[in-house]
Design goal:
Aspartate Aminotransferase, domain 2; binds pyridoxal-5'-phosphate; alpha/beta; three-stranded antiparallel β-sheet; Aspartate Aminotransferase, domain 1; 12 helices; 2 domains; seven-stranded mixed β-sheet; globular; single chain
């Protein structure tokens, strides 16, 4: 059996570091926020090249608070993509703002920057690109358009810890960057977690207040706040894991390169490699017109795969009120129909990659 993701092997490899870190939280009883979370915020912000990091209890909360801090409000429009995990659009809706979709391009599957300007109206407040699968969106044109129109840029970096764009770490290129530490993400907590990074001290301060009941001083609630604080356990675990992240990322990249080399079957499209973007392969998705047949064949050989994501957000039941319909975003819809995510994690062995690649290729001889 080849799993899609193997968190147990990873845990065994860091058990000796992570177990004492967890026990230390029980001994200090700093169960919510506390010194470990604070240290993690500083270390993770530095890792992304940002001045500030504010840890929260999920990537969704990170997006929600980043948009609030940026001043997005009811009736405002936020330009984003439909080819993403649903949380991107949900966070915009939580505020009473409207997600305005533009399509993705068929190479990076990130925001098609040539379509942004046509989507801008006098209600547009922000652009929210998604670094999907661990591939950086095309940030230079996005920042240029935002500057020209006075818009804020919030990066959804939930899948892209450590990804680079033209040599710069993503997350700190826009005004605010949002990461998730859901266990399956490239940097995963042992529970839920997230962070917002920014170079803007006012945004950081506002998010700090919002995540903790809108209070700066205990029981003085200046704002309508939330209980979005990070657990002490997660801060302690994430500090340990952050020290390994670069090694794990290099492991994923080497595994992806080996897949690229081996996947030569007719009609299979490995993920495109784009110059000057460091892809961190949260997801290694191939494209094929015969996805269902391939997924079934792999399942028979006990090779577990996934589909990220089968239905773009504009066609999801809960989002039909936005008024979009099938055919509005042809690239997102085509990609959603064709992608298949192969097993991908740092500890995947060369032998496992060979087995998966052979199984895929065998399904595609003419
Ligand atoms: C995982 C994810 C989120 C949400 O993060 P959670 O920690 O699960 O709330 C947001 N956007 C994208 C693209 C994601 O993959």
């Amino acid at each position: 059996m080849i799993p899609f993701l193997d968190l147990k092997t990873q845990y065994q490899s860091i058990k000796e570091e992570v177990d004492p870190a967890v026990i230390q939280i029980m001994e200090s009883t700093q169960f919510v926020l506390g010194a470990e979370v604070k240290a993690f915020e500083e270390e993770f912000a530095a890792y992304t090249g940002a001045d500030f990091g504010v840890a929260v209890n999920s990537g969704t909360s990170a997006l929600h608070l980043a948009l609030l801090a940026a001043g997005v409000g009811p009736g405002d429009e936020v330009i984003t993509v439909p080819f993403t995990f649903v949380a991107t659009a949900a966070a915009i809706c939580y505020i009473g703002a409207k997600p305005v979709f533009v399509d993705v391009d068929d190479q990076s599957y990130t925001m098609d920057v040539t379509q942004i300007e046509a989507a801008i109206t006098d209600k547009t407040k922000a652009i929210l690109p998604v670094h999907i699968y661990g591939q950086a969106a095309d940030m230079d044109p996005i920042m240029e358009i935002a500057k020209k129109h006075g818009l804020i840029v919030v990066e959804d970096a939930a899948q892209a810890h450590g990804a680079h764009y033209k040599g710069r770490p993503i997350g700190s290129i826009g005004d605010l960057g949002c990461f998730s530490f859901y266990p399956g993400k490239n940097l995963g907590a042992y529970g839920e977690g997230g962070i917002v990074v920014t170079n803007n001290p006012d945004y950081a301060q506002k998010i700090r207040i919002l995540r903790d009941w809108g209070q700066e001083r205990k029981y003085h609630h200046e704002l309508l706040g939330y209980n979005y604080r990070m657990d002490g356990f997660q801060g302690a675990v994430l500090r340990v894991k952050l020290r390994h992240l670069e090694d794990w990322t290099e492991g994923r990249r080497a595994n992806a390169a080996y897949y690229d080399e081996l996947l030569t079957g007719y009609g299979i499209q490995p993920p495109p490699v784009i110059p000057e973007r460091r892809h961190v392969y949260h997801i290694y998705a191939i494209r094929t017109k015969q996805r269902e047949r391939l997924q079934e064949a792999l399942q028979k050989q006990e090779i577990h795969t996934g589909i990220h994501y089968p239905i773009p957000v504009h066609l999801q039941q809960g989002y039909l009120h936005l008024g979009y319909k099938a055919g509005d975003f042809p690239c997102s819809e085509m990609v959603a129909n064709e992608v298949l995510s192969l097993p991908m994690f740092a500890e995947l062995t060369r032998e496992q990659i060979e087995i998966v690649a052979k199984a895929v290729n065998d399904n595609f001889h003419d």
